[in-house]
Design a protein that fits this description.
alpha/beta, transmembrane, binds 2-acetamido-2-deoxy-beta-D-glucopyranose, 4-stranded mixed beta sheet, membrane, 7-stranded mixed beta sheet, globular
Amino acid sequence: MKAFNSNNVIKKQFSLVFVKFAVCFLVLGFAYRLFLSNFEQFSQIEVNHTVFVSNDTLPPPVTVSEPPVAVNLPENQTLLNGKCDLFIGDWVRDPSGPVYTNATCYSIESHQNCMKNGRPDTEYLYWRWNPRDCELPRFSPKKFLNLMRNKSFTFIGDSIMRNHVQSLLCILSQEEQVDDVYHDEQYKSRRWYFPIHDFNLSVIWSPFLAKATVFEDDNGVPTDITQLHLDKLDDAWTGEFDNFDYVVIAGGKWYLKSTIYYEKDKIVGCHNCPGKNITQVGFEYAYRKALNSTMKFITSSKNKGYTFFRTTTPDHFENGEWNTGGYCNRTRPFKEGEVDIGYVDEAMRKIELEEFERASEFGLNMKLFDTTVLSLLRPDGHPGVYRQYHPFAVENKNKKVQNDCLHWCLPGPIDSWNDIMMQML
Ligand SMILES: *[C@@H]1O[C@H](CO)[C@@H](O)[C@H](O)[C@H]1NC(C)=O
Ligand SMILES: *[C@@H]1O[C@H](CO)[C@@H](O)[C@H](O)[C@H]1NC(C)=O
Ligand SMILES: *[C@@H]1O[C@H](CO)[C@@H](O)[C@H](O)[C@H]1NC(C)=O
Ligand SMILES: *[C@@H]1O[C@H](CO)[C@@H](O)[C@H](O)[C@H]1NC(C)=O
Ligand SMILES: *[C@@H]1O[C@H](CO)[C@@H](O)[C@H](O)[C@H]1NC(C)=O
Ligand SMILES: *[C@@H]1O[C@H](CO)[C@@H](O)[C@H](O)[C@H]1NC(C)=O
Ligand SMILES: *[C@@H]1O[C@H](CO)[C@@H](O)[C@H](O)[C@H]1NC(C)=O
Ligand SMILES: *[C@@H]1O[C@H](CO)[C@@H](O)[C@H](O)[C@H]1NC(C)=O
Ligand SMILES: *[C@@H]1O[C@H](CO)[C@@H](O)[C@H](O)[C@H]1NC(C)=O
C-alpha cells in the first residue's frame, strides 16, 4: 500500500523508466525481435527450457533517430454518445478471485501457468476491471455459450491472441467440456468444439495479418529478413473469414521485426535493414498500410458477423529489456496517472484508432476493443520469471532465468478482457 501513496514520485520514476525503456526498446529493436520470434515458438504445452538465444547470436544494435517520448494517458473521455465507455475506469479489489485455477483448467500454456510455475504472490488474482460509469458484470460462461449456439468464433493474430483465447477457454471449460479438434504442428492455429452448444472456437495464427514470408530456422531464429506485402493479406484468415460469426482481430508487436516491405510486388522500403540499400520507412508506415488493407477487406467482405478490433497490448519490462535484465516484479496494479504509455505502444495505438475511425465511415460491423490502457495499468499480471517452472529451484540454478513481461498469467488480468467482450455482445 505504502508505495502507492506517493503518486507523484512513482509517476516521475516510472516516466523515467519508460523514457529509458523507450530508448532501450528502439536501440535494441533487433534483440527484441529475436525475443518475440522465440516466444512464438513456445506454443507447445510442454515445459521447454531451451529458451532464448544467447547474446552472441544477436545482430549489432541499430540506432534509430526517432526521439523517445512519453505520452500521457488519453483524456477524460467518459461518455461516448451518452453510453458508458467500458475502457475508462480502474482496477478494483475483488475478493472472489478467478473462476479457474491451474487445477481446474487443463489447457494453460506452461509459460503462462504462473501458479503451477511457483509464483509466490497471489494478489494479482484479486482484481477486476471497473468501468467508471457503469457496472461490468462478471463473464457468464452459461450466457456466453447460449449466445454462441450453432455459431463460430475466432481469434486472429499473434501469441497475445492465443493468450486471450486460452483465458476464454479456461472460463468456458468450467461450464462445458470442450473437444480439441485441430491444431497445427506448432500449436499456433487451433480449433475447439463445444458439442452441447454446437459452438466452434478457434485461433488463427497471423501475427502480421498481411501476407508475410518469415525465414526462421527450427529454433525460431531468423535466417533472413522478413518480407511483408502491405497490400496483400494473409490467406490463413481471409480464406475462412466469411464463415465466422464472431471475430477478434489485432496486429501488434511483430511490426517491430526487421522487415522489407512490398506493395504491388515491388519493394517500397524497410524497417531495420542495415546493409540492404533500401529506404527505411519505419514500422508506422507499414502498420498503417497493413491495417488499411485489413479494414478494407473486412468492410467489403460479405461476412455479416461481428468483429472486434483489438488495440495494441503493452509490456512492462522495467530497468532493462528482456535480454538486459529487464524485469516486472510489481505485485499491484497502477492507478490512472501512475504510469505513462511507452513510445511504441502510443504510436501503434494512434495508428489503430485512426485507421479504425477511417474504416467506420464505411459503416462496418466492427467494434473497437481498446484494451491498451486498462492493460497498461497491470504491470503485476505478467509471468515475469515464472514463465518457467520453479525458476529458483535448486536443480535449475545453472539455468538462465528469463523474464516475460509481455504475455499474461492465466488466470490473470486478461480474463477481464472477456468480461468486456461479453458486455459488448
Ligand atoms: C525444446 O525446444 C527445442 C527447440 O525447439 C527442441 O529442439 C527440443 O526438442 C525441445 N525439447 C523438448 C523436451 O520438447
Ligand atoms: C549478455 O550480455 C550481457 C551484457 O553484455 C552480459 O553481462 C551477459 O553475461 C551476457 N549473457 C550471456 C548469456 O552471454
Ligand atoms: C472526468 O470524469 C469525471 C467523472 O465523470 C468528472 O467528474 C470530471 O469532472 C471529469 N474531468 C474532466 C477534466 O473532464
Ligand atoms: C497449482 O499450483 C499450486 C501452487 O499455487 C501447486 O501447489 C499445485 O501443485 C498446482 N497444481 C497443478 C495441478 O498444477
Ligand atoms: C445453424 O446456423 C446455420 C447458419 O446460420 C443455419 O443454416 C442452420 O439452420 C442452423 N442450425 C441449427 C441446428 O440451428
Ligand atoms: C464448425 O466447424 C466445422 C468444421 O469446419 C463445420 O463443419 C461446422 O459447420 C462448424 N459449425 C458451426 C456451428 O460453425
Ligand atoms: C543503392 O541503390 C541505388 C538506387 O537503386 C543505386 O543507385 C546505388 O548504386 C545502390 N548502392 C549500392 C551500394 O548498392
Ligand atoms: C485506406 O486508405 C485509402 C487511401 O489513403 C483511403 O482512401 C481509404 O479510405 C482507406 N480505407 C480504409 C478502409 O480505411
Ligand atoms: C524487484 O526486483 C528488483 C531487482 O531484482 C529488486 O531490486 C526489487 O526489490 C524487487 N521488488 C520486489 C517488490 O520484489
